[in-house]
Hints:
- By secondary structure, the chain is an alpha+beta fold.
- The chain has a domain at about 100-190: General secretion pathway protein M, EpsM (Gyrase A, domain 2, 2-Layer Sandwich), CATH 3.30.1360.
- Helices cover about 50% and strands about 15% of the residues.
- Strands 1-2-4-3 form a 4-stranded antiparallel beta sheet.
- The protein is elongated.
Amino acid sequence: MENSFQTSFIPKRPVTTNPVPHKSSTSLFSILAVLLLIIMGVASGGLFLYKNYLIGQKKVLSSSLAKVRDSFEKNTIDELELYDKRSSAAKQILDGHIVLSPLFALLGDLTIPEVQYTKFSHDTTDKGFSVKLSGVAADYRSIALQADSFNSTKGRSFRNVVFSNLTKNKDNSVGFDLEFTVDPTLLSYEKNVLIEDTQVKTPALEQSAPTLEQSLAPASNSNTNPLQAPVTPNQPQ
């Protein structure tokens, strides 16, 4: 007896797997995109409103400035502008003005007795205030000592000191040429005149007037007037 029941382990249809849709990730991305769009819209609106606010403030400030400017008289404004120009011009003149007396004073202090000058000239160059001298020294040693004097701490206002054209004369003296530049602060008009005048006048103002007792005090016992020569009695012939 034949067995009519047959079984087969081979499937009749291909086995397929359906992908599971990721609905959660797609929905999250959409939410982030919408939020970003809303934020950008709010920021754009805020910038637009802030821009209009700044424009309005500018107009208000311009109007206030115009009112303040119109409140001043035109003549007053012109006088203030003229005063400002004169002050600036005066400051420029004072800054450029120089005084030569400190130069001669320092040169006299630094010069040794064995050296004397015969010529003096000065000029303003790109390097500064330049001085040229000619002179005579007792000997070469005196010139070396003079150079050391210029290079000392006291002579720091004289820069680039150069001796040249050393010539021995018949009397054994040595002629020379000298050139150097001067520190601008040494020749400053403001430093040497204005400030010194202020320092001199200030103590004088602080001195008190003489008291009544000092004014009525008796003179010294000497009958001699210091402004007159003493009178001697006539000598008998």
